[in-house]
Structure formats: C-alpha cells, structure tokens
Design brief:
The complex is a heterodimer of chains A (168) and B (100). With 168 residues, chain A is mostly helical. The longest helix of chain A is centred in the middle third of the chain and has 25 residues. By secondary structure, chain B is mostly helical. The chains are: A mainly alpha (168), B mainly alpha (100). At the A-B interface, helix 1, helix 2, helix 3, helix 4 and helix 5 of A face helix 1, helix 2 and helix 3 of B.
Chain lengths: 168, 100
C-alpha cells in the first residue's frame, strides 16, 4: 500500500471517530474540541487528494474562524447538561433512519464498478502548484460567483450583527 | 492512490454521523456542529470527484461551500444567542413557538 493511502486511512478513521465523539459528548466544550480534531483530519485528507489550497482554507476558516465562533457562543450561553438527554424513543428512531440511509447508499456504492481515472492529478497542479491553478480558475472562469460570495459574506455579517443585538 | 469509492464511503460515514447528531441531540449548538460535519462530507465528495475527473471546478465549488458554511455558522450562532435572550434556553425541544 502506498504511503499516501496509509495516511488517508489513518486520517479517515481519526475523523470518523472524532466526529462520533462530537455528537455523543454531553459537554459542548468537549464536542467543540473533537470537532477541531475532525476538521484537522479533513484538512490532512485534502492534502492527500492534492488539494493543498483547500487544506489551507479548511484550517484557516473551519479550525480557526468557525471554531472560535462556536467556543464564544458556548462561553456566552450557560452550560445546560440536561439538554443533552433526548427521549430514548427519539434516539432509536433517528439512528434507524440514519442506518437505513447508510444501508441504501452503501449498497449503491458497493455494486458500482470502480470507475477508471478520466483525468490526471497533474491537471490539478498545472503550472506552479495547486494554489496558482485554483487561483487562476477562481479569478478567470468563476470571477462573478467569487464576487457574489463576497456579497453573501457581507450579508451574513450584517445579519449576524442585527440578530445578536440586545433588543430583538 | 486511494480509490474514489473509498472516499465516497468515508464521506458517507461522516454524513451519517452528522445526520444522527442533528436528529438526536437537543442542544442547538451541537445540532449546528452536526450540520458542519455534513457540509464537510459534501466538500470531500466535491474534491474526490475533482481528482477523479482531473477538473479544478470541484475545488472551486468547495471554496464556495466553505464560504456559505462560514456565513451559515455566523447567522446560526447569532440566532442561538437571540433565542437564549428571549427564551432562556437553547434546548430545541422547548423552543416550539411556531407549532401552529
């Protein structure tokens, strides 16, 4: 097995285990810290998949920005540990639903013939590495969506400020 | 080289865990964390197919997904703070003012 594949399988198991911990820990602070671990593992998987730019963005935006937001809100809202205990009937129904979805999708993936590679990984890193390639694509072909995304971020910022005001 | 189907099964596992968290937990903050896990699994699918097809469009769309996730978390957490101010709880079982 190639070293990259071993790294992928290790990171994937770390990610799945820590995301299970996220949804099962009763204390939200522990859940947030396991979420950081899951995000870092996903960033490592992006590196294995030769998407270095996205790995950097994942660490900066998810493990940096979003986690700080989560921890701030956990700090502002008092810990109510009883809020972690749903009725058992509800848990059984939800887990059954998730298991049915997993079974259906696994059965589809299992029977599907493993498709051949249509392109080459070299196309993702053409001319000066992945970051330059993604930048070229982002500022040439996807310039308008890029600008619209910045407007979306502005709207989200204004919306968050308005929603979190004292009197609403 | 990791086969694309293994990547799909991994992202499926992440999505199912996030879905189970959203459906079972009562703490609104942890529900948002489950949604983040599901968005990450969608991103992994984008990147897996970007590698499979040798096309950068998947990576560009992942950037947009991350932008949307950042906005969603900011607004969602502001809603949680507003809810706590008005209802003194973030237990989503006790927040049912829109129950008709």
């Amino acid at each position: 097995m190639a070293p990259a594949a071993i790294v992928f399988y290790v990171l994937a198991s770390v990610c799945v285990v820590s995301s299970v911990m996220v949804v099962t820990r009763r204390n939200p602070v522990h859940a947030a810290l396991f979420l950081v671990l899951a995000f870092f593992a996903v960033a490592g998987i992006y590196v294995v998949l030769s998407a270095e730019f996205l790995a950097a963005v994942q660490v900066l935006v998810y493990a940096g920005g979003i986690m700080v937001l989560f921890l701030f809100v956990i700090m502002l809202v008092p810990l109510d540990l009883r809020a972690g205990l749903p009725p058992a009937r509800h848990v059984a129904g939800s887990l059954l639903l998730a298991a049915v979805l997993a079974a259906v999708l696994v059965s589809i993936f299992w029977d599907a013939p493993s498709p051949a590679f249509m392109g080459s990984v070299g196309a993702l890193t053409e001319g000066g590495g992945n970051i330059e390639a993604v930048g070229m694509e982002l500022y040439r072909r996807y310039l308008l969506p890029f600008e619209i995304a910045s407007v979306l971020l502005l709207v989200a910022m204004v919306g968050a400020v308005v929603l979190a005001r004292p009197r609403i | 080289m990791v086969p694309t189907s293994h990547l799909l099964v991994f992202s499926l596992a992440l999505f199912i865990v996030g879905l189970a968290g959203v459906l079972t937990r009562r703490n609104a903050i942890i529900v948002l964390m489950g949604i983040e896990l599901m968005m990450n699994s969608a991103n992994i699918n984008f990147i897996a197919f970007s590698r499979q097809l040798g096309d950068l469009a998947g990576q560009v769309f992942s950037v947009f997904t991350i932008v949307v996730a950042a906005g969603e978390v900011a607004v969602g957490l502001a809603i949680i703070i507003a809810l706590y101010r008005n209802k003194d709880t973030i237990n989503i079982d006790e927040i049912n003012i829109m129950k008709g």
